[in-house]
C-alpha cells in the first residue's frame, strides 16, 4: 500500500504477519497500544507517542498526532491502485449528488445558491426542528446544481434540499 503524509511524503508499506517493510527496508517496532486511539512505539531507540485525532474510513484518511506534531495521512491500497490504473476514480464513483433533510422541519435560512462552489463542512442552510436550529453543512466539495427549498419551506425527512453537479 502507499501512504501519503501531509500531501508531501510518500511511503510504500507492506505488512503481513507482524513484519513491516517501508520503502523496501524492514522496520522493527516495539508497539504498545494503550487504547484503540493511543499507541506508543519504540523505533531506532526513539520513543513515539501516537494518537489518532480523526479518521475517515471511506476516504481512507486520518489525522494523527505524533509527539505533539499533527500529520494528515492518506492510504491507497492495492485496490485503489488497480482502479487508478484502469482509469476509474473511486472518489468520483462515490460522489455525493444531493443533500436530504435529516429530519422534518422548517427552513429558516438558505445560505447556498445555484452555481456556488462549496467545500466540505461549509454551511448550506439552517433547518429548525423541534424548536432547535440545525446548521446543514456540505458533506463534500462541489458546485451547487439546484437548490430545491426557500426560506419558510416545510420539509419532510429525506426530502432533497439541494443537488450537486
Report on this model:
It contains 2 helices and 17 strands. With 165 residues, the protein is mainly beta. 8% of the residues are buried.
List the helices and strands and how they pair.
Blueprint: E1 2-5, E2 9-16, E3 19-22, E4 25-27, E5 30-35, E6 38-43, E7 46-56, E8 61-66, E9 69-76, H1 78-85, H2 90-93, E10 98-100, E11 105-110, E12 117-118, E13 123-129, E14 132-137, E15 142-147, E16 154-155, E17 160-164
Antiparallel strand pairs: 1-2, 1-9, 2-3, 3-4, 5-6, 6-7, 7-8, 8-9, 10-17, 11-13, 11-16, 12-15, 13-14, 15-17
Strand count, sense and closure of the main sheet?
A: 9 strands, antiparallel
The overall pLDDT, averaged over residues, is: 87
User: Which residue ranges are poorly predicted, with pLDDT under 50 across at least 5 consecutive positions?
Assistant: none
Total DSSP helices: 2
Proportion of helical residues: under 10%
How far the N terminus sits from the C terminus, by CA atoms, comes to 32 Å
DSSP, total strands: 17
Q: List the secondary-structure elements in sequence, H or E.
A: EEEEEEEEEHHEEEEEEEE
Q: How much is the radius of gyration in Å? A: 21 Å
Q: In which order are the strands of the major sheet placed?
A: 4-3-2-1-9-8-7-6-5
Beta content: over 45%
Shape: elongated
> How does the helix and strand content classify structurally?
mainly beta
Amino acid at each position: 500500500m502507499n501512504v501519503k503524509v501531509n500531501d508531501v511524503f510518500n511511503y510504500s508499506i507492506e505488512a503481513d504477519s507482524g513484519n513491516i517493510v517501508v520503502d523496501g527496508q524492514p522496520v522493527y517496532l516495539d508497539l504498545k497500544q494503550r487504547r484503540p486511539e493511543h499507541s506508543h512505539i519504540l523505533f531506532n531507540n526513539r520513543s513515539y507517542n501516537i494518537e489518532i485525532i480523526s479518521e475517515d474510513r471511506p476516504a481512507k484518511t486520518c489525522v494523527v498526532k505524533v509527539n505533539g506534531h499533527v500529520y494528515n495521512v492518506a492510504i491507497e491500497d492495492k485496490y485503489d491502485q488497480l482502479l487508478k490504473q484502469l482509469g476509474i476514480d473511486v472518489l468520483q464513483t462515490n460522489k455525493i449528488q444531493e443533500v436530504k433533510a435529516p429530519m422534518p422541519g422548517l427552513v429558516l435560512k438558505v445560505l447556498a445558491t445555484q452555481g456556488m462552489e462549496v467545500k466540505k463542512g461549509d454551511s448550506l442552510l439552517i433547518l429548525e426542528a423541534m424548536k432547535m436550529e440545525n446548521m446543514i453543512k456540505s458533506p463534500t466539495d462541489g458546485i451547487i446544481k439546484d437548490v430545491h427549498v426557500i426560506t419558510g419551506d416545510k420539509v419532510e425527512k429525506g426530502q432533497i434540499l439541494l443537488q450537486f453537479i
